[in-house]
Amino acid sequence: HAQGVFQRLGLSPDPTSSETPGVYHGSWGGRGALVDSINPANGELLARVRQASAEDTEDTLVAAREAYKQWRTVPAPRRGLVLQDIGRALEEKRDDLGAVVSLEMGKIKSEGRGEVQEIIDIVGYAVGLSRSIGGSVFPSERPNHFITEVANPLGVVGVISAFNFPTAVYGWNLSLSLVNGNATIWKPAPTTSLCAIATTKIIASVLESHKLPGALSALVCGGGEVGQALVDDKRVDLLSFTGSEARGKIVGQQVQARFGKSLLELGGNNAAIVLPDANMALALPSIAFAALGTAGQRCTTTRRLFLHSSIADSFLASLVAAYKSTASRIGDPLAEGTLIGPVHAQDGVNRYLAAIEQIKKDGGEILVGGKRAEVDAALSKGNWVEPTIVKVANGGRGFKMMQEETFAPILYVSTFETLEEAIELNNGVAQGLSSALFTQDLSNALKWIGPEGSDTGIVNVNGSTSGAEIGAPFGGNKSTGWGRESGGDAWKQYARWASCTLNWSNEVALAQGVNFSV
Ligand code: UN1
């Protein structure tokens, strides 16, 4: 299966006999280290990727700036036509690219395909923008003056993305970058290089067919050194970073130190709250998806669940039963019926196991899960863990593990008495990405989305914390980094804005009534 997919995407079908170039800026190459791409479900080698050397990164920066100079003069609606072709090309390859996401990242088939769909959707959004981006016109206080905001292309956008969404988050950035007239340089997570190469090949084929420089969608596969080069380089005008809070805090400061622009998409520690008046038949599957989906490795994963004390026991019993019923549906991400794939890396298993140890020490009660998962012999070299529910007392106040994001399927559950208390618990962590309230009462819902409500960047009522649509801005507050990507006004960050005042009279007129005749 994998071989057919690889062939159709122009990837090498035999990892043992050939290496895969991981650098693209119009042509493919790479002179850095060779890194293995491993299938997290069974430990098999998928590819050996030649990463970027320091010279490759330099060459790419030069090529991307050149490409930007050409692209910035292309009218936005024409950029839209190129994006439209990119959307079509992705649509043609959606299932194959989705399968590569499953093979290399480990997410299940529909989620792999869904991730590619996210790119197709945001590309469509950018096509629409290509006929509407621009600024406002403002009334001038002076006669015969005209004031408008102009959105010019910004330059080169660097994208450093994480393993958990190995193509979609890049897609969000690429689409908005391209429609604004910029070039983009992508540094993916080293363990999902193949997803990045396959995606770039699709986009590059469209750029090349339009006789445009491939460096508009440049790729530098590599590790920390390659990322650091983009962070430090003044030729990267906007650096869009997805990753941990610890890393993002440093990245943000380093980009700021050279007065660059950064867009940070850092940790989430998302809560769902169930009130007694909730539609439980809706709440249960919504929460199960958000907690279990992608094996707990979305930024938007539900990690904390607060149940009203009057419904806590019955809800929890149903949730534990749902978790137990998924035990038989852990396995090969590409097999029909699988709901839970592996965690992405061995490292993730270790972090999960370390978290479980700490939870036990701190007095958390494990209701289900808590160890490595049993799977078929064919998958024994994969990274398998059991989805876990931990019951904690006192709303989890003072329970240290609940304050941080462990990128694994671990859900903490506690109870509350009033909506105000639940909101306080929801807001009582450093992170502020996504949250969800389950209620049928309008005043509860409005309080939740209002000034005294949830402080996260994404706020849901009767829906999952994860699985946001592309049309709205995506991002989080507080230590999540305040960045906004994808829909809404996020595109404005990819432009170089100027407020332009044009005097079309023959008079000197100073603002604020200042008189200065010489
Ligand atoms: C991420 O986990 O980094 O809302 C992105 C969601 C997806 C994107 C998640 N649309 O879960």
TrEMBL record:
Q: Which family does it belong to?
A: Belongs to the aldehyde dehydrogenase family.
Keyword Transferase recorded: no
Enumerate the PROSITE patterns for this protein: ALDEHYDE_DEHYDR_GLU (PS00687)
Q: Name its species.
A: Leucosporidium creatinivorum
Keyword NAD on this protein? yes
EC number(s): the record gives 1.2.1.3
Check the record and name the Pfam families matching this protein: Aldedh (PF00171)
Tell me the domain of life: Eukaryota
Q: Which residues does the Swiss-Prot or TrEMBL record annotate as the active site?
A: 265
Keywords (A to Z) from UniProt: NAD, Oxidoreductase
**All residue ranges annotated as the Aldehyde dehydrogenase domain in the record:** 35-497
**Entry's Gene Ontology molecular function annotations:** aldehyde dehydrogenase (NAD+) activity
Under which main EC class is this enzyme filed?
oxidoreductase
Gene3D superfamilies listed in its UniProt record: Aldehyde Dehydrogenase, Chain A, domain 1, Aldehyde Dehydrogenase, Chain A, domain 2
Q: Please name the CDD domains in this protein's record.
A: ALDH_F7_AASADH
Q: What is this protein called?
A: aldehyde dehydrogenase (NAD(+))
Quaternary context? Homotetramer.
